[in-house]
Amino acid sequence: MLYNRLYASACVQAGEKGKSLIARFFFAIAPFIGVVCGANSIITVELLTPLNNASVPLIDQDWKEKIKLRDEQKNVPKGINPVNLAYPLPVNFSWTAKNASDCIIEIAKDAEFKQIVKRHAVRNHNQVEIYNLESDQVYYWHIIASHGENSVTSETKTFRTKNDPRLIYVPDVTEAPWPTKGFGPVNVRDFGGKTVVSGGKTRQSLAYRGTEFDNVYTLSPRGLELFRDELKIKTDLDFRYPANVAGRTHSAMGEDINWIHIPINAYRSFTPEQNDYFRDAIRVFANKENYPIYFHCTGGVDRTGEIAFLLNAVCDVDTEENFLDYEISSLCFFPRKRTIPYFTAWQAKISTFGKPDDSWKTKVENYLLSIGVTAEEIASIRTILVDKDAMTHSKQEP
């Protein structure tokens, strides 16, 4: 390498007395060319993957086909798929770092690295898998390689994650068949990232949905760290029935987490009592102090799916994306297609709150107003959850 030859030649010509001066000079210019002088060697860094400007998937790209196949399965015992397919894909980073003993990878949303979202120390390896990046998002990454007191920052490369559903990787989820006791939370995903018909997208990293995590599904210490420190959950919105939470006084994530228990009844949503429960559940999303929110029932499918459907509709999310959000649970243990009878009956009741040709946004807004959610609360939900300036940069695979 030309740089190596220049450094070696300069050191020879300078002799022992001038060698330290030469080293300081090469160290000073290193950030501009991706190398740095060590005591007896030069650190060189080359970024390998992702390729610059790559489009990177966050989920297997046949996910829609998998949903369809699962929905068409016959004779599923007790309506349960024994194998969980709701796993996200990591982004694989690799590089070479010659003469470096330690590396730090930094991933940011801006080229100046003022919005760093991931920072990991890596020793004795030149690759790392990173989970839980946001979908349809441009990222910048570089490597800080070091040996002793010397370090160098590599060039910066960029990539964009695909416009995929953002499934959340929870550490230590066992791959044993359901319902193995101790199975970590599954069907966990970001509520946001969906196309808004009137413009923009729903914001990511504000609300998450999934299973419970203190009974059949349990959090490991690393899983708890994910929810508290990475997702930064502030509110645990729990839709389980009273018998499921008997004796519980606070969230399993910790006493400092805002635990709100509202026992809504799946698909039997229109009694006076249930109207109040659904009103109270939706109101949680109107208060920005509650975010980030993790909302769940037991399996994260029916009661959670109803609330997600209402929120998507009132935010004017594309109808197909809203129904797909309901059906993604089929990748987990519980097959749910949009035509399942109790869901279609529930939809039909919601539809009576508007004219046949009205949008789901209008029908759901009328329904929410009828059960006591105010127009101001609906406006607040939209303000919080919808980013009107966001653009969908990549289409979901057909």
Main attributes of the structure:
single chain, 398 residues, alpha+beta, Immunoglobulin-like, Protein-Tyrosine Phosphatase, Chain A, 2 domains, six-stranded mixed beta sheet, five-stranded mixed beta sheet, 9 helices, 30% helix, 21% strand, elongated
Number of helices, counting only DSSP H or I runs of 4 residues or more: 9
Distance between the termini: 46 Å
DSSP strand count: 17
CATH topology call of the largest domain:
Protein-Tyrosine Phosphatase, Chain A
Q: Assign the CATH superfamily of the largest domain.
A: Protein tyrosine phosphatase superfamily
| SSE sequence, one letter per element | HEEEHEEEEEEEEEEHEEHEHHHHHE
**Radius of gyration in whole Å, from Cα?**
25 Å
> Which band does the percent of strand residues land in?
15-25%
What do the pLDDT scores average to? Answer: 88
Main sheet record: 6 strands, mixed
Q: How many domains make up the coordinates?
A: 2
Q: Determine and state the CATH class of the largest domain.
A: Alpha Beta
* CATH architectural label of the largest domain: Alpha-Beta Complex
* Uncertain parts: none
Helix-and-strand structural type? alpha+beta
